[in-house]
């Protein structure tokens, strides 16, 4: 009786445990693989409560969210032999959990596969392109919106600045992503994105780059100064030209006006004096006497002058 | 944190039952069992009550999961949920704007604004520009987890995702612009960066909204700063020289125009005067001529004497020379009022 009771309790407990083991829950950020005797039989990507066979099925939980992969700083020479330091980050997630468990197995393994796949692709693509292609995504710099006011002026790096960008950063990264995605999908992983996180010169050549920048800037400063002086001279020259024009124009019209007036006056005088030239000469002489300045002068008159004729007459 | 009520109850039961070992009188053991059941039920109820209530702090939001599945987003306050781990809570997320700094680290955020530049942030801050120069940029990104569900469940490490994306997009923005443009068009750069960053994050569908980006510092690297300043000075000087020239132009040309106009006006004045004078004199001559014709010699003599009367007093000395007698006679006509003939 007691043994029966004990057996009943055990069976009841086992059944209860079985009922509990029939269910499993998957969180929003998880996905699960159901393995039966170690072999994966199904994957669950939907969050919530799910059924499984009790006792014999095991649940392996994997992340559903995306992870980050980082190449770390890589020093690579570009097509022109310029050393470049690049750092690429990738976002990836587990797209096929069953395959992921079977082939990659663990996250460490997965990261090792990513290293093996993406690193060589980065090296290939960077060394196959030139630095300007990696820096720029477009030719925006050539347009007024993003260019400098010095754009279009001859300079040491004008050729570099206005170089045609054939693939450009976006497309280089896009092709890397495409190539890497194919290889990575075999491991049940999906590569969401591949981004150039950092792009810089390695420390070994930074000093040289700065030197180049300094000399470029000194050159530009000198150019700006001489431009200023040139423009100033140009404006002053223009001013001089206009000044001379204005002044000579004024002098010319003044002369013309005066000349016309003189001619008019001469004509008027002529008309009047021609009526009696002799009398006109007499009048003019008198006028001249009147207008002559006699201050501080001594006037010498002959006694036979008209003025004295009457004086003499009175004496007599 | 969710409790495990069954376990807790079991443990209690277990401890209590081990504390009461051995057979006892049936009535006593029944009483003990009843008490145990009562205590167990009470504990179960207490556990249920505790796990059915949760609090979300002010200014926070939390996600409630039912059997792991998204149920709802709970705002601040006290809420009820299904107990015993049926509903679970994901850690409450503050509903505020978070700030990520790039190129520098805030030591005491908010207070005194003390910042440092460690080697890592130095690497962040040196970016390549489109003309292959290096620019030193320090900036901050302010963001808010707008869609909490996406924010929590799409990326494993959303903050790191923001940091990576922010650096990458800045590199892209700087790479498409020249060094000078970056230096002088910060507003355009800032706007392009904010839009670019938001667009890049939207592609991850991670529920993050960029509130604001700030370019704290955009300047040439230390080694280049002096040379860059020299360019600036040269630019200023260029402007100054041009302005000087324009100023001279603006000063000289109108004055010359005025002077020219004055010259012409004065010539015109001369012309009018000259012609009028000529007309006047001609008219006077004509009138006098008319008189002269009427009474010839008389008029002529009168005119002559009138002239003499005007002219002779003006001279300082008048010497009359008689060519025959060779003597001189001085007429002192300087004094006014003296008559001409009086001395004689």
Fold and architecture overview:
The complex is a heterodimer of chains A (316) and B (344). Chain A is of the alpha+beta class. In chain A, 54% of the residues lie in helices and 21% in strands. Chain A is built from nine helices and ten strands. In chain A, the strands form three sheets. In chain A, strands 6, 7, 8 and 9 form a four-stranded antiparallel beta sheet that branches. In chain A, a hairpin with a 2-residue loop joins strand 2 (30-36) and strand 3 (39-44). In chain A, helix 3 (107-128) runs antiparallel to helix 6 (168-184). The longest helix of chain A has 71 residues, at 203-273. Chain B is α+β, with helices and mostly antiparallel strands. In chain B, strands 6, 9, 10 and 11 form a four-stranded antiparallel beta sheet that branches. In chain B, strands 3-2-5 form a three-stranded antiparallel beta sheet, with no helix packed on it. Chain B has a two-stranded antiparallel ribbon with strand order 1-4. In chain B, a hairpin with a 6-residue loop joins strand 12 (317-321) and strand 13. In chain B, helix 1 packs antiparallel against helix 2, helix 5 crosses helix 7 and helix 8 packs across helix 9 (296-311). Strand 10 of chain A pairs parallel with strand 12 (317-321) of chain B.
């Amino acid at each position: 009786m007691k043994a029966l009771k004990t057996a009943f309790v055990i069976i009841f407990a086992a059944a209860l445990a079985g009922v509990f083991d029939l269910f499993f829950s998957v969180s929003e950020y998880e996905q699960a693989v159901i393995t039966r005797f170690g072999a994966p039989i199904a994957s669950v990507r939907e969050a919530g409560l799910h059924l499984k066979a009790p006792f014999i099925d095991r649940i392996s939980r994997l992340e559903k969210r995306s992870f980050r992969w980082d190449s770390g700083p890589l020093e690579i020479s570009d097509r022109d032999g310029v050393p470049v330091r690049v750092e690429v980050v990738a976002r990836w997630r587990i797209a096929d959990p069953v395959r992921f468990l079977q082939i990659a197995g663990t996250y460490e393994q997965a990261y090792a596969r990513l290293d093996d796949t993406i690193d060589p692709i980065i090296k290939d693509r960077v060394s196959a392109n030139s630095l300007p292609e990696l820096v720029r995504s477009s030719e925006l710099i050539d347009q007024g919106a993003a260019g400098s006011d010095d754009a279009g002026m001859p300079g040491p790096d004008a050729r570099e600045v206005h170089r045609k960008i054939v693939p450009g950063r976006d497309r280089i990264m896009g092709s890397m992503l495409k190539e890497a995605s194919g290889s990575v999908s075999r491991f049940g992983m999906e590569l969401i994105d591949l981004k150039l996180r950092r792009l810089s010169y390695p420390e070994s050549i930074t000093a040289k780059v700065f030197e180049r920048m300094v000399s470029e800037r000194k050159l530009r400063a000198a150019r700006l100064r001489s431009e200023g002086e040139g423009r100033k001279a140009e404006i002053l020259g223009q001013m001089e030209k206009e000044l001379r024009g204005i002044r000579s124009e004024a002098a010319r019209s003044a002369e013309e006006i005066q000349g016309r007036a003189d001619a008019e006056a001469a004509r008027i005088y002529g008309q009047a004096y021609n009526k009696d030239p002799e009398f006109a000469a007499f009048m003019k002489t008198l006028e001249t006497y009147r207008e002559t300045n006699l201050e501080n002068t001594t006037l010498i008159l002959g006694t036979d002058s008209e003025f004295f004729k009457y004086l003499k007459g009175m004496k007599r | 944190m969710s409790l495990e009520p069954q376990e807790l109850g079991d443990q209690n039961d277990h401890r209590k039952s081990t504390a009461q070992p051995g057979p006892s009188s049936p009535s006593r053991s029944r009483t003990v069992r009843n008490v145990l059941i009562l205590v167990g039920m009470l504990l179960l109820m207490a556990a249920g009550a505790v796990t059915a209530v949760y609090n979300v702090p002010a200014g926070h939001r939390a996600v409630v999961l039912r059997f792991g599945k998204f149920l709802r987003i709970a705002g601040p306050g006290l809420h009820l949920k299904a107990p015993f781990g049926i509903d679970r809570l994901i850690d409450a997320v503050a509903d505020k704007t978070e700030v990520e700094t790039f190129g520098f680290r805030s030591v005491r955020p908010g207070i005194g604004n003390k910042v440092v530049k460690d080697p890592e942030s130095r690497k962040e801050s040196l970016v390549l520009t489109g003309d292959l120069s290096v620019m030193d940029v320090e900036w901050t990104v302010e963001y808010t987890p707008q869609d909490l569900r996406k924010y929590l469940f799409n990326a494993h490490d959303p903050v790191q995702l923001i940091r990576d994306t922010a650096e990458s997009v800045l590199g892209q923005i700087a790479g498409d612009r020249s060094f000078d443009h970056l230096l002088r068009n910060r507003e355009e750069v800032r706007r392009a960066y904010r839009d670019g960053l938001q667009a890049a994050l939207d592609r991850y569908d991670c529920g993050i909204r960029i509130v604001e980006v700030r370019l704290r510092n955009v300047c040439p690297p230390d080694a280049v700063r002096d040379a860059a300043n020299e360019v600036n000075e040269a630019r200023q000087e260029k402007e100054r020289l041009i302005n000087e020239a324009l100023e001279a132009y603006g000063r000289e040309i109108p004055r010359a125009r005025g002077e020219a106009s004055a010259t012409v006006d004065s010539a015109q004045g001369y012309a009018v005067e000259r012609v009028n004078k000529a007309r006047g004199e001609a008219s006077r001559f004509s009138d006098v001529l008319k008189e002269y014709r009427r009474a010839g010699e008389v008029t002529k003599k009168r005119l002559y004497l009138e002239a003499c009367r005007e002219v002779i007093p003006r001279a300082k000395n008048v010497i009359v020379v008689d060519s025959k007698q060779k003597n001189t006679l001085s007429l002192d006509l300087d004094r006014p009022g003296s008559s001409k003939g009086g001395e004689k």
